[in-house]
Amino acid sequence: MQIIKRWLGASLLGLLLAGSVQAAGFETRAATSAPELTARDLQGAPRSLADYRGKVVMLNFWASWCPPCLREMPSMERLRLKMAGRPLAIVALDSAETADEVNGFLSRMKLGFPILLDPDGSNTKRWKVFALPTTFMLDADGRVRYVLTGPTEWDEGEALVLIESLLDESPKRGEPGT
Amino acid sequence: MRLIRLLLLSLWMCSCAVRTEMPDHRIFPAEGATLLLWVASERGLAEPEVHAAQQLAAQGMETWSLDLVGAYFLPQLASSMDAVPQQDVARLLRAAQASGKRVVVYAVARAAVPVLRAAAALDPAGRQGLCVMLMYPNLYTVAEPLTEPDFLLVGDLAGLRVHVLQPRRSAATPWLPGLLDHLAKQGATTSHVILENLREGWWARETPTEFELAESRRMDVMLRRELDNWGCK
Questions:
Q1: B192 occurs within a structural domain
Q2: Which end of chain B is more exposed for a tag (fewer CB within 10 A), N or C?
Q3: Which of B136, B144, B148, B169 is most worth mutating to test chain A (most A CB atoms within 10 A of its CB)?
């Protein structure tokens, strides 16, 4: 049953990638190894991708001055709630802003997923991010599988199917989702 | 057969006529010693830009306002700027320099491409007499996630002075050092300033901040300040 489910999931994903996912702008990557991520969270604790090993990671580069970034944030929060208990880590890395600027925004929008800081833009450069938002989908082995430049509704449609497909590839390996 | 020849000849003559034209531009005359050639971005000229051009002229700085995508009936896309004939823009630069005034070119976003190409087409003396201010210039050929950026080669910029104005709130800000290096490798003498609390195209944003609104109304002041601080003579 599990095999059939996975096969159906993969087939559906294939169809979507050939059609509307392509239109949404998801780029498929040939499981390339992810660049280093060295950042701090809002409490000042150091964070890296190793903290999320074994989970599917949605790494979202954003900034508080970027309207499309803010538009997709509620859907990321809904995704977090929908995926509670599943091995998905949603991580939002603020690009080249200060903690004060980020906290100013977070006082207006309550988000439950971790926000990391990149005040000098070094992660933004290492990941070669040229537009915001840009989101990288990593599989549970830490490899980049999909990239999306621009916003989407993360808790529905193609984005959700894509996330489910990555989760289906890595059953029961990770801790419960963030 | 004769009719076809006549038709081909007419087409050739028309194309010659186009080749010898300068792009349409609007002139705000003034008596001062500086001429500012304002080249709008691929999004065209916004009302606050026209207002700033009028203000500068009122303060004595002659301003020629140029909307390249409009002048060539091109779609409002960054790639349209790459299709603008560099010789036409070079002709406009020479016409500006023929006025005898100090010529400052101010180009926004991808308009940097035709402006720099035109500057490269000038003779060395013409290039050295030019001051070029670029507002968040877009010179990318490749800007793909996880891939090293690549910038356009625009030609020989030896002797050209380029001052980049970069709004802090831009995804391009972390990449500014690479862009400046690229311009320097082509011969330009570069400098830059970061414009705090502003986003790209703040004068035409759908949801501007209070600060952006205020700055939109005083773009003339910002440009004069940057020109004075830069000191390009």
A1: yes
A2: N
A3: B169
Residue B2 has a pLDDT of 54
> Does the bond joining A133 to the residue before it have cis omega, within 30 degrees of 0?
yes
Amino acid at B166: Q
- Kindly tell me the burial class for residue B125, based on how many C-beta atoms sit within 10 Å of its own C-beta (0-12, 13-18, 19 or more): exposed
In the predicted structure, residue A170 carries a pLDDT above the cut 90: no
Q: What is the ipTM metric for this complex?
A: 0.87
* Contact at CB, B169 and A127, closer than 8 angstroms: no
What's the whole-model pTM score?
A: 0.87
- Residue range A106-142, pLDDT digits in tens: 999 999 999 999 999 999 999 999 999 999 999 999 9
Q: What is chain B's length?
A: 233
Using the Cβ of A138 and the Cβ atoms of chain B, whether some distance falls under 8 Å is answered with no
User: Which ranges constitute the DSSP H helices of chain A?
Assistant: 2-18, 20-24, 67-82, 99-106, 122-126, 157-169
pLDDT in tens, B135-151: 999 999 989 999 999 99
Structure tokens at B233: 């003579």
Which residues in chain A (65-104) have CB-CB distances under 8 A to chain B? 65-67, 95-96
**pLDDT recorded at residue B24:** 87
Residue B6 lies in a domain: no
Rounded CA separation A125/A103 (Å): 23
Chains A & B: contacts with CB separation below 8 Å: 49
Question: What is the Cα–Cα distance from B138 to B171, expressed in whole angstroms?
Answer: 11
| Burial class of residue B176, CB neighbours in 10 A (0-12, 13-18, 19+) | middle
Asked if B146's CB is within 8 angstroms of A130's CB, the reply is no
The segments of chain B whose pLDDT lies below 70 read 1-20
Q: Which domains does chain A have, with CATH numbers?
A: 2-169 (3.40.30.10)
Q: How many CB atoms lie within 10 A of CB A156?
A: 13
Q: Do A127 and B171 touch (CB under 8 A)?
A: no
Q: Is the pLDDT of residue A21 over 70?
A: no
* Separation of first and last alpha carbons in chain B: 58
Neighbours of B15 (CB within 10 A): 10
Query: How distant is the alpha carbon of residue B198 from its chain centre?
Result: 19
CATH number at residue B55: 3.40.50.1820
**B12 in a domain, yes or no?**
no
